[in-house]
Amino acid sequence: xxxxxxxxxxxxxxxxxxxxxxxxxxxxxxxxxxxxxxxxxxxxxxxxxxxxxxxxxxxxxxxxxxxxxxxxxxxxxxxxxxxxxxxxxxxxxxxxxxxxxxxxxxxxxxxxxxxxxxxxxxxxxxxxxxxxxxxxxxxxxxxxxxxxxxxxxxxxxxxxxxxxxxxxxxxxxxxxxxxxxxxxxxxxxxxxxxxxxxxxxxxxxxxxxxxxxxxxxxxxxxxxxxxxxxxxxxxxxxxxxxxxxxxxxxxxxxxxxxxxxxxxxxxxxxxxxxxxxxxxxxxxxxxxxxxxxxxxxxxxxxxxxxxxxxxxxxxxxxxxxxxxxxxxxx
Length: 330
Fold this sequence. Notes:
Layout: H1 5-23, E1 26-31, H2 37-44, H3 47-50, E2 55-60, H4 63-71, E3 77-81, H5 82-89, E4 96-100, E5 102-103, E6 107-111, E7 126-129, H6 135-145, E8 157-160, H7 166-171, E9 177-180, H8 184-191, E10 194-199, H9 200-203, E11 210-214, H10 216-221, H11 223-242, H12 244-254, E12 260-261, E13 267-268, H13 270-277, E14 282-283, H14 289-304, H15 314-317, H16 321-325
Helix pairs in contact: 2-11, 2-12, 5-14, 6-14, 8-13, 11-12, 12-13
């Protein structure tokens, strides 16, 4: 005997509800930085669609702002620095790092004609930095300044400002140095406006920076989408590494980079900015023990500068099982 009308109706309603849930886009936030280009590449090259994933991308200025959006459950996952992940984890937002995005990106720059040649020369000077408490701020205070015997806001003054404002602040003498990321570093270098005082890669070779994280409810309710996200991310990273010229063109276009006029009057194409930035950025997906050790160092630095009371255990917010589910070796 066939199903009753009521049974058919109920099954149809349940199917529609399940379909509606599955068709909801995965809302992904990303910090507006060249290092997070895999998020854009995956969309531009159709890698999300190849994995059967419907996504909604939204850019943010820095980690603290994107963390607020995650806390408000306006996002499901994010390309974000590891620092805001564990800082907010300690406050109750139990986000999980499920893949790496890149290593490197930051540098301390000074005006090209500046007499500052060592970190010690910064004593009594002003440094442009991003929002207090952000990952870049922790990196500046803990990894750059402290080893040089400089205490932020005591030996040097750190002025918070958007990275896009830093080049003008340097040129106008508002600050003596700027701690920033790509593509802002390369823009200043290629124009001849600045020189690198310290590339963080020199003191922390291959340090991990941006990561791919997801909220616990995303991993619980949409585990298949989390795996698809990692696979699309892997495809984007492979594309960047295996097709550099094409990837540079896409990144230059996506970030609306402009041609650069050098100090000697030469005009460089926007792609030259990305090529220069590759000297400080490397892209990869797997999470290593070395990455974990650096996250632990950042947690100690966050505590030492008063940004975090109690540090969570590394395995509480880093979950490599998702990489294994995506078929990515560790």
